[in-house]
Amino acid sequence: MKRLYYLFHGTEFAKSISNDLQNAGINQGQLHFLSHDQVGLATANVHQADIFDERDIPHSGVWGAITGLGVGILFASYLIATELGSHMNFGVFLFVCALFTFFGTWAGGFIGISNENHHITRFHNALEEGDTLLMVDAYDETEESRLRELMHTRHLEASYEGEEDNFKVFL
Predict the structure, then answer these.
(1) Angstrom distances, CA of residue 68 to CA of 60, 75, 115, 148
(2) Reduced to 3 states, what is the DSSP secondary structure of residue 24?
(3) 170, pLDDT greater than 70
(4) Which of 11, 100, 128, 168 fits as disulfide partner to 40, beta carbons 3.0 to 4.6 Å?
(5) Residues 40, 42, 150, 1: what is their CA dihedral angle, to the nearest 10 degrees?
(6) Residues in contact with 81: Cβ distance below 8 Å, sequence separation at least 6, in sequence order
(7) What confidence tens digit (pLDDT) does each residue in 116-141 have?
(8) Number of Cβ within a 10 Å radius of residue 103
(9) What is residue 6's three-state secondary structure?
(10) Burial class, 95, CB count within 10 angstroms (exposed 0-12 / middle 13-18 / buried 19+)
(11) pLDDT of 68-120, one tens digit each?
(12) Residues of the chain with CATH 3.30.70
């Protein structure tokens, strides 16, 4: 999947862009509009970006889980090396690792909810100035070329701001 980014000022063009893309065969779920003008997007009745598009919860949660697993392995290994180790079986080792992994995921999620999504930090200033960010997910090259052509010919108010190949929400 490829994610394409477009910026345009305000929210007044959101409805027409959404309608044109849907008429061209792009599913509404592939469109993610993000703006500080939530009322404008709600009035336009377009698919707004969700919390996972706005905040860095999945990305930070994954890194928290990886860190938690690493710390859990180290701590469980330490326990095995002590006198307690003779009373521990492999199930306890796995339980300690899982406990630290879950805690790391939980802590990472809290860190992520307080941070802007790392995929959209480059648009922070534009969003602060009142622009709307459109993120479009293209699943194949045909769909991508269709939406690029449409945006280039019918919606000159939206400037192309880049893309991400092999877009993954969690990484």
Answers:
(1) 12, 10, 19, 42
(2) coil
(3) no
(4) 11
(5) 120
(6) none
(7) 999 999 999 999 999 999 999 999 99
(8) 16
(9) strand
(10) middle
(11) 999 999 999 999 999 888 888 999 999 999 999 999 999 999 999 999 999 99
(12) 2-54+120-164
Q: In sequence order, what DSSP letters do the residues of 113-148 get, joined into one string?
A: HTSB-TTTGGGHHHHHTTEEEEEEEE-SHHHHHHHH
- Residue 41 three-state SS: helix
Which position has the token pair 């990472």? 108
**149 and 24 Cβ atoms separated by less than 8 Å:** no
Q: Which amino acid is at 102?
A: F
Which neighbouring-strand residues pair with 160?
6
**C-alpha distances in Å from residue 118, one per residue of 27, 68, 138:** 25, 21, 20
Q: SS3 of 79, please?
A: helix
Q: Give the residue from 136, 154, 117 showing the smallest Cα distance to 6.
A: 136
Q: What does the block give as tokens for 32?
A: 């993610």
The Cβ-side half-sphere exposure at 43, using a 13 Å CA radius, reads: 9
Across-strand partners of 9?
131
Report CA-CA distances (Å) from 163 to 5, 82, 160: 6, 52, 9
> What's at 105, amino acid-wise?
T
**CA dihedral defined by 154, 152, 5, 20, rounded to 10 degrees?**
30
